[in-house]
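A reminder from the course coordinator: this example appears on the midterm review sheet, so study it carefully.

Given structure:
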């Protein structure tokens, strides 16, 4: 019987729905490996009204994911960016997943919104349009105006969504453990770790308070810049299921006609947009993780507006330094440096270095002497990792997805856009910051503090060891390779010594006494024993 059904008995109805959709779309490999065919058919949905024979396996999976709802859509969107995990035919198909769904009727949204606001929207807002301007799998967005005159958008989480998502996350977390046990070749891709990251991200996205906090955090990083704009959050009306923020007037970067009519400089907008994104990632270590065309706006004065902060990425200082090294290796066409960064990132302990070295050199050769298209370069880089059985860390995969998306948006603004060239000023500022005297002084101070801490603990450790020595309670564990062989050698040597002692004792003590008695039988036995003993010693010496 299916282990998942036992472990997730509380989510049995949702499990039946998932099984029915997957089987209905013919995603047979996943169904069989997870044992979903054993699920009772009571709650199965009917087969989809499409001809599955005309769909490839990637297409079937993509359609099944869309039918499964927001949790699986988010999972599919993450996998679509993981060229280090999936082959191109899968990432390309999953890249077609969209997060736009049919809006729920106002009658379904209104009771929850009134409960969260504490009053009907008509009493909170001077204007409120009940027709949503956007509808996604997590929330719907409405346009409104506060009593004080500010134009705002009101983002409302879909009712009943959290229960379904929590059930999905529990089932998927258990499924990843099954994958690791049933598909040992997948263990190196750390599916449990990947799923944990997706779960954390979805739970953060469900709480709209987090989106408001993320927006204010990023806005604070650009408080002294007028060319980058973030919306104001109205906390008096914001809660876990409702977000009220400033409505930003801008033009999507894909709307070329409106950009031209507004007289905006698309080249300058692209430069400012990528400069802001790289400033977040390389200098501040926190960045907008989904900078697609719907989340970036071109504004008057050639300003760039960022919206939708449900997901943000974070990079440690070490990761940021590694990213700079990677960019440097690419620009210098340094295959060895590229390979070193890849090994450091993936943590692989036993890769085929000859094969990886050849792949790194081929990568450098492919992108040598051309204007670097970041999207293609990073996708190719992750493909190289996959073909060498290496998996990228989750935080870097999110950054790469953001960079690829941002590169695509900037190329829509400026077809000749070169992100590597545009990154130059930010990279130089970052390098100066990381290797300035102030930064180096800080690092040395940190190192000195660490050494001081270790030195301060040394007397305590020595005292403890002396006490244990006095008490006879010090245990030493030593592991020596080849100990079995050494033991057998000692045993053979001991046997030879023992036999030698017996023979010597016989020859020097017992044999003369027997000969003194002149008993022929004893003399014969003594000579025979002496001969056998000498022969045994010679044999042991020969076989050592």
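Designed residues:
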């Amino acid at each position: 019987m299916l282990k998942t059904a036992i472990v997730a008995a509380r989510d049995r109805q949702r499990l039946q729905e998932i099984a029915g959709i997957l089987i209905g779309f013919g995603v047979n490999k996943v169904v069989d490996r997870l044992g979903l065919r054993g699920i009772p058919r009571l709650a199965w949905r009917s087969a989809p009204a499409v001809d599955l024979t005309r769909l490839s396996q990637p297409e079937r999976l993509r359609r099944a994911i869309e039918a499964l709802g927001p949790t699986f859509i988010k999972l599919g969107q993450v996998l679509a960016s993981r060229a280090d995990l999936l082959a191109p035919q899968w990432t390309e198909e999953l890249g077609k997943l969209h997060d736009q769904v049919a809006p729920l009727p106002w009658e379904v949204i209104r009771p929850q919104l009134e409960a969260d606001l504490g009053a009907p929207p008509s009493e909170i807002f001077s204007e409120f349009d009940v027709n949503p301007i956007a509808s996604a799998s997590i929330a719907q967005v409405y346009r409104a105006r506060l009593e004080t005159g500010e134009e705002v958008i009101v983002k409302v989480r879909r009712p009943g969504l959290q229960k379904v998502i929590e059930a999905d996350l529990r089932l998927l977390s258990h499924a990843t453990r099954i994958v690791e046990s049933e598909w040992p070749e997948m263990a190196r891709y750390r599916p449990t770790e990947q799923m944990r990251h997706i779960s954390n991200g979805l739970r953060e996205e469900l709480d709209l308070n987090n989106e408001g906090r993320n927006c204010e955090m990023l806005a604070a990083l650009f408080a002294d810049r007028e060319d980058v704009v973030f919306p104001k959050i109205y906390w008096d009306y914001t809660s876990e299921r409702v977000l009220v923020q400033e409505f930003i007037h801008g033009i999507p970067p894909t709307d070329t006609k409106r950009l031209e009519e507004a007289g905006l400089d698309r080249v300058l907008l692209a430069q400012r947009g990528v400069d802001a994104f790289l400033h977040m990632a390389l200098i501040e270590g926190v960045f907008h993780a989904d900078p697609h065309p719907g989340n970036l706006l071109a504004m008057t004065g050639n300003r760039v507006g960022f919206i939708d902060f449900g997901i943000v990425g974070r990079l440690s200082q070490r990761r940021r330094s590694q990213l700079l090294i990677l960019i440097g290796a690419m620009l210098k066409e340094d295959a060895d440096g590229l390979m070193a960064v890849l090994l450091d990132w993936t943590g692989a302990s036993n890769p085929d270095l000859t094969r990886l070295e050849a792949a790194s050199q081929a990568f450098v050769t492919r992108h040598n002497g051309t204007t670097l298209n970041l999207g293609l370069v990073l996708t190719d880089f992750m493909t190289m990792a996959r073909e060498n059985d290496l998996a990228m860390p989750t935080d870097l995969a999110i950054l790469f997805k953001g960079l690829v998306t941002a590169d695509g948006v900037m190329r829509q603004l400026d077809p000749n856009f070169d992100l590597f060239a545009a990154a130059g000023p930010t990279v130089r500022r970052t390098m100066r910051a990381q290797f300035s005297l102030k930064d180096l002084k800080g690092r040395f101070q940190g190192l000195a503090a660490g050494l001081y801490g270790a030195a301060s603990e040394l007397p305590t450790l020595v005292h403890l060891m002396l006490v244990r020595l006095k008490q006879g309670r010090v245990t030493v564990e030593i592991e020596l390779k080849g100990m079995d062989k050494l033991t057998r050698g000692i045993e053979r040597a001991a046997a030879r010594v023992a036999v030698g002692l017996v023979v010597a004792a016989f020859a020097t003590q017992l044999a003369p006494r027997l000969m003194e008695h002149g008993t022929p039988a004893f003399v014969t036995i003594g000579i025979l024993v002496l001969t056998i003993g000498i022969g045994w010693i010679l044999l042991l010496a020969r076989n050592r």
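The CA atoms of residues 143 and 153 lie 5 Å apart. The chain is about 60% helix and 10% strand.
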